[in-house]
Design a protein that fits this description.
The chain is built from six helices and no strands. The chain is mostly helical.
């Protein structure tokens, strides 16, 4: 996942707003697994709609996962 992924899914403006939010829901391994499952089961358009239907703080966390922003933090959580 990368910033390009997030921009392709939600557009540059929405992705930037979500990534700049200072109070996203915390990203956990559980949320990362849920995002991975939905991304694998849904088309890109359906995945984007699913995420947009979430409360804003959770959506921001999903965007952070899709953009790869949280990867380092999640790897540390596993250690």
């Amino acid at each position: 996942m990368s910033l390009r992924t997030a921009v392709n899914l939600w557009g540059a403006d929405v992705a930037a707003r979500a990534l700049a939010d200072d109070a996203p829901e915390p990203v956990t391994q559980e949320l990362a697994r849920e995002v991975s499952r939905h991304a694998g089961e849904l088309t890109d358009a359906a995945f984007a709609r699913w995420a947009l239907a979430l409360p804003w703080p959770r959506f921001c966390a999903v965007v952070r996962i899709a953009a790869g922003v949280t990867r380092t933090d999640l790897l540390k959580e596993d250690a």
